[in-house]
Every structure is written in C-alpha cells, then in structure tokens.
Amino acid sequence: MNTFDCVIVGAGPAGLSAGLTLGRARRYIAVMDNGTNRNRVTQQSHGYLTRDGITPQAFKEAGVNELKNYPSVSYFHTTVTGIRKEFGGERMIVRTMDDETFYTEKVILATGVQEEFPFPSVREFYGKSLFSCPYCDGWEMKDQPLIIIADKEEHTMHMARLIYNWSSDLIVATNGVELSKDCAQELKERKIIIKTEPIKSLNGHNGYLEKIEFKTGETISRSGGFVVPSFYRPNQFAKHLGCEIDEDGTVATDGAGRTTSKNVYIAGETEKSASSSLIISAADGQKAAVSVNTDITLERF
Q1: Which is the CATH superfamily of the domain at 118-227?
Q2: What distance in Å separates the CA atoms of residue 180 and residue 184, rounded to the nearest whole number?
Q3: Reported pTM
Q4: pLDDT for res 1
C-alpha cells in the first residue's frame, strides 16, 4: 500500500526543499510533480546563491537527484487529480491521473502558480526577451531599449521606477489605460515615453522581441522588456481541503506553512498566489517541512 507520512504536491524549489528536509528527518515522503513549473520557459534562473545562471531544468534535476540520497523519499512524475480527507480527517487520500491511490497523514501543497497575460502573443517571447521579474532578469537586460507592458497604473509606476535602475531607455505601454496626470508627469520628467494606445501585436523571431505594433498602425522598436501578468493557482486543492483563503487570495497560515485545515501545509508561490524567487520559495518549503516534522514528532512521541 502506498502509505506515507507526507505527500508533497509539486517539485519546484518549495517542494524539493521540503522533500529534502523531511527526507533528512527520516520521514516517509512522496514528492509528486507533472513538470509544469512556471519557470520552465526561462533560459536561466538567477539570484539563487551558488546556482546563479543555472537552467530551470538543471536546477530541478539537481534537486531530484539530491532526494535520491534519502531512501525514505519517493519521487513520482505524475499529476495529482484529487486530495480528500478521510478517517476523521486524520488521514488523506491522494489520487493521480495514473489511477494510483496514496494514503498520507500530511500534505504540503507546493504546486506554484501560473501566469495570465494581457494578450496571448506575450507567450511567444516570455522567458527569452520578455520577463516579469527585474530581480531575476534585469541584469541581462541592462542598458537595452525596453518596453514595460502593464495595464494598471500602480503596476506601471512600480515597474518603471524599478527597471529605470537597469535601463533608462524605457517605453511604457498601458494597452489602452490612461495614466493620471501626476504619474504621467513623473515618467515624462525622466524621458520615459508613454504609449496608451492598445497593442495590436508583438513582432520578432525565435522568442526575441523586435517591434511592437499598436492598433493605430504605429510600430516601435524594442529588444525586450517586462510585462506584469496576473497569477492563478492551477488547482483548487487548498479550497477543497477547507483552507481559509483571504480576500486577496492568500491562503491563511501561521507563518510556518500550517494552514487552517489540519494536516494541510502550504509553501512557495501557492500560498500567496503570486510570484516569488527560487530562494524564497525554497526557504518557504524548508519552513513547512519543519512544521510537518514537528507536528509528527509531537503526535507520535
């Protein structure tokens, strides 16, 4: 019977970090992942100490290989299709698309989030010349002619102020949204061009941006830039398991990965339904794992 102390759903930095910590704690762990991690489209991952510039796939493979050093950890390449509590809530049943059933005392949700963009063609360039995180990719884009695509004023201003540190050759495109007089003046003072016309298309080759065409017929040349996506959870596990979710979409926790639903823990981007860096997500996974191990210890001692 597939029975574990904890099932970790998702093998991004949060899930892998949690698996490593619990494996070293000699807990019987199943880590399940279907390869849809959000950063798989990027060429390099940055900002993770000792791994700066590593490809997302190499980072993941290194993490999975480290788990193999601990015999109590099992890794499954599969999609979790359902999780439900049974036996008075003291045990959970996890089912996968392979029609396998797993039993576990604890679950860590670490499936991350996915992006939604203002228009579909962004995906053609996302991860190669259009990015969402200046801390991850700003260095590589420094001093280039860039565009910022954001359709909310607060996002536009935040990104413009931040990215100006890497490149002052900026065009802000709001895709049809007018900026307030004060915000527009602030940008103009720094010679940042504002384009409020709706975008018709992004043009380039092999994922590398060359031009932006507006619905007015005007085109401008840009070599890359940053876009502000919205984020969503790819599943409803937290909701279905009875976790309290705040109005802003954040899953309520005790600050150490415990949700309001007994035996359900959460880590990484899944908790806030927002983007995060690799190193912060890994730290979140380690915290959640310590909570799981602490709770198991106190329940069994």
Answers
A1: FAD/NAD(P)-binding domain (3.50.50.60)
A2: 6
A3: 0.94
A4: 66
